[in-house]
User: Fold this.
Amino acid sequence: MSTNQLIFDSGTILLPAPFALPFQLGPNLDVRKYSNIRILAKDFEPAAKAVGIVLMAREGSVAVELGERLLLGGGAHHTTHVYDVPGRELQIFIVEIGGPKKLQLLLFGLED
Assistant:
């Protein structure tokens, strides 16, 4: 039986602008036991300018960007995406920000 587990909860965070990019959000996450992951991103200020989020899978010294850049803002209140997990660790990066942003990220893993 498959089960979902919460891997990471950013809590409600305020991202000031500008700051040095890319910016890693949270620690490196161990995702070895999950077949796929789901990221849920909630924007508390959807009318504000967009923020770009990238998920990076790491296997040793090799890093691979998962899917497309997630854009949050510009009218979108939330977004969710599911990815296969090809590596041992996962990193979440803020790669662009158009202005101050208040958001929350939740990451779930599916364990078979």
